[in-house]
């Protein structure tokens, strides 16, 4: 019990991102893994929702994802970042579902 309390004690004193906060609620309501709800499901949606406030940072994300943003304006760079993260999420979900399907068909617990 002490470990559980200590793990959450600092949370009220720091901010959590929108994706993280929504992910907690989805995970609890639908018995899903918190990391999946926070990062995989919510991240591209939250990036789109906050784009007006995060345009310069979205350009950095696009660059980190391998997009050449030199000739893009901020909105186009934001679209590229959100698209690149969405594509990554799609690939991760596809691979995860394939892995779980194989594991289940082989009798291993997922």
UniProtKB/TrEMBL annotation:
GO terms for molecular function: alcohol dehydrogenase (NAD+) activity; metal ion binding. It comes from Pseudonocardia broussonetiae. SUPFAM superfamilies: Dehydroquinate synthase-like. Transmembrane segments: none annotated. Residues 2-94 form the Fe-containing alcohol dehydrogenase-like C-terminal domain. Signal peptide: none annotated. This is Iron-containing alcohol dehydrogenase. InterPro entries: ADH_Fe_C, ADH_Fe_CS, Alcohol_dehydrogenase_Fe. It comes from the Bacteria.
